[in-house]
Specification:
mainly beta; 3-stranded mixed β-sheet; elongated; 7-stranded antiparallel β-sheet
Length: 179
């Protein structure tokens, strides 16, 4: 019983600074309006996660985004809900810096539509030329997401790539490589 009480008090003390911080008297509000988005900010040295459709009270000022997670739900063949996830650890585009003004609500959005870009280029290694083909997922606010996609707790296999000529003849097939 004593250990349970101590753990409960310790848990309250650990969560207290974030609670006090998010309920400051002179504050503005931040609202993430993108469904399934979790925005991570650093507020007074602490990481604070702001989920979609929840207003967070924050002291007025400028905040830097530290990470973004996008979630989507889908029913599998048996009707079981599966959670999909992609993340961004930078570049955050228009979400890089967020301004909070006293007495006002700042709304942020990102995510869909996601644009898939395939940057290409030539690389030289010793006397050999290589064609570099990249993969980038870019959200509505120009935020870049990792091409690593999770379905549930499993990483989805890397996408496939086909290089074709003008007539549609496949010249080469490959897989993207993570890392």
């Amino acid at each position: 019983m004593k250990w349970t009480m101590r753990l409960m008090v310790a848990a309250l003390l650990v969560s207290l600074p974030a609670t006090v911080l998010l309920s400051a008297a002179n504050s503005g509000k931040l609202k993430v309006i993108t469904p399934g988005m979790l925005l991570n900010l650093t507020v007074s040295g602490q990481k604070v996660a702001i989920p979609a459709n929840k207003e967070a009270s924050l002291p007025p000022g400028e905040y830097k985004t530290k990470g973004i997670e996008l979630y989507a739900r889908e029913a599998d063949r048996r009707g079981k809900i599966v959670l999909w996830k992609i993340t961004s650890s930078g570049s955050f585009g228009k979400l890089e810096t967020i301004q909070i003004a006293e007495g006002q609500t700042t709304e942020v959005e990102g995510g869909e539509p996601i644009t898939v870009k395939v940057p290409c280029g030539l690389q030289m290694q010793k006397a050999t030329k290589f064609v570099y083909v990249g993969l980038a997922y870019i959200g509505k606010s120009d935020e870049w997401y990792s091409p690593i996609v999770y379905k549930g707790s499993s990483r989805v296999p890397a996408p496939q790539l086909q290089i074709s000529d003008e007539s549609g003849k496949v010249l080469h097939t490959a897989s993207f490589e993570y890392g």
